[in-house]
Design the sequence.
């Protein structure tokens, strides 16, 4: 076999060897036979089993890879809820009968966050005496005269701070007449001296005997010091028979009439002083930490899954699968693009070109030889 044929035969062999084992460079094959996938998770368990995050097989463009390893790396850790506390002064109470549990609730909510009671201390608070201005109205019915309205009135005052009630006397500062009316329940007795005389003396007025006394109603009211604006006499009736007393004849009588009354509303106002009082309140400390739950540490974990390419297997009598064909094409592509393979191919191409040039030169040299034909043999 010539040198050209020998070298030409070597090339297919080298190609075949390279396809089977990438020309003796397994590192390149290892790079393409493995795949890695990464996922980041958060968990309160630093040794959480996250293998379920990955499937046993991974299909990449028709090439199947099998899961061979899952590794974990803790990137960071932090508190799930950082504990925060707040101090709240509850409302002051002054009555020992107050339900204290309502003054220190177990939980409160602030800005949508639930806080839990950790501690409660009972504190004292003194409310000093203070002077306040007050006003109140008291209604009166059937007042005979405006002067009969009481000049002071008992007013119930509620301390808005403590909720306690106090009674205080405040002076009359005004009134309002709501309604006026006459009532026929007015009467008074009259004693007539010298009943057998020709005239009766009523103050400075001489009344003739036998006169209807009701006609002198104004004079009768004056003798009693009553104003005709508020009282009037309607009739006078004699009572019983006249009798003698100390040598003088006396006759009893009864005057009947009406009195003017009014329903009024009186206003009482003034300043009043409230006493000093002592109250209590709870100073409560709350935390956002639920006492029934522990605050967990949250770990940020990077999970890395390693896959290896499954081997292409062709059973006897069965054609290779599509994945196997694709695997062979990929291997051929990797072989062609391998720098070593390209270098070998360039060397072979260079040798072939040199040999072809050498052969061509040899042919040119041989073409200059002159062959002498044997004339004797020609003659024969």
Sequence:
């Amino acid at each position: 076999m010539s040198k050209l044929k020998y070298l030409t035969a070597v090339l297919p062999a080298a190609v075949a060897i390279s396809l089977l084992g990438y020309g003796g460079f397994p590192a390149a094959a290892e790079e393409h036979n493995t795949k890695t996938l990464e996922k980041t998770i958060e968990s309160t368990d630093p040794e959480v089993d996250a293998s379920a995050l990955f499937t046993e097989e991974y299909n990449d463009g028709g090439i199947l890879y099998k899961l061979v390893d899952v590794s974990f790396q803790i990137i960071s850790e932090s508190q799930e809820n950082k504990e925060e506390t707040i101090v709240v002064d509850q409302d002051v109470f002054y009555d020992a009968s107050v339900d204290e549990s309502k003054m220190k609730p177990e939980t409160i909510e602030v800005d949508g966050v639930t806080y839990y009671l950790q501690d409660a201390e009972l504190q004292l608070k003194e409310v000093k005496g203070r002077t306040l201005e007050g006003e109140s109205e008291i209604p009166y019915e059937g007042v005979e005269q405006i002067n009969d309205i009481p000049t002071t009135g008992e007013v119930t005052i509620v301390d808005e701070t403590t909720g306690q009630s106090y009674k205080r006397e405040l002076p009359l500062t005004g009134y309002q007449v709501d309604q006026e009316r006459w009532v026929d329940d007015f009467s008074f007795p009259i004693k007539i001296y010298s009943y057998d005389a020709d005239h009766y003396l009523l103050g400075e007025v001489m009344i003739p005997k036998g006169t209807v006394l009701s006609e002198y109603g104004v004079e009768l009211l004056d003798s009693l010091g009553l104003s005709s604006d508020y009282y009037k006499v309607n009739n006078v009736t004699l009572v019983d028979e006249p009798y003698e007393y100390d040598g003088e004849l006396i006759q009893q009588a009864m005057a009947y009439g009406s009195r003017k009354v009014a329903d009024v509303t009186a206003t009482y106002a003034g300043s009043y002083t409230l006493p000093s009082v002592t109250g209590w309140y709870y100073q409560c400390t709350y935390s956002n930490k639920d006492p029934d739950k522990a605050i967990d540490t949250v770990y940020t974990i990077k999970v890395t899954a390693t896959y290896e390419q499954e081997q292409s297997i062709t059973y006897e009598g069965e054609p290779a699968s599509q994945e196997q064909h694709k695997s062979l094409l990929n291997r051929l592509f990797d072989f062609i693009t391998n720098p070593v393979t390209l270098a070998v191919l360039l060397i072979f191409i260079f040798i072939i070109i040199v040999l072809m040039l050498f052969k061509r030169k040899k042919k040119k040299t041989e073409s200059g030889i002159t062959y002498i034909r044997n004339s004797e043999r020609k003659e024969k």
Observations:
- The longest helix spans residues 339-366.
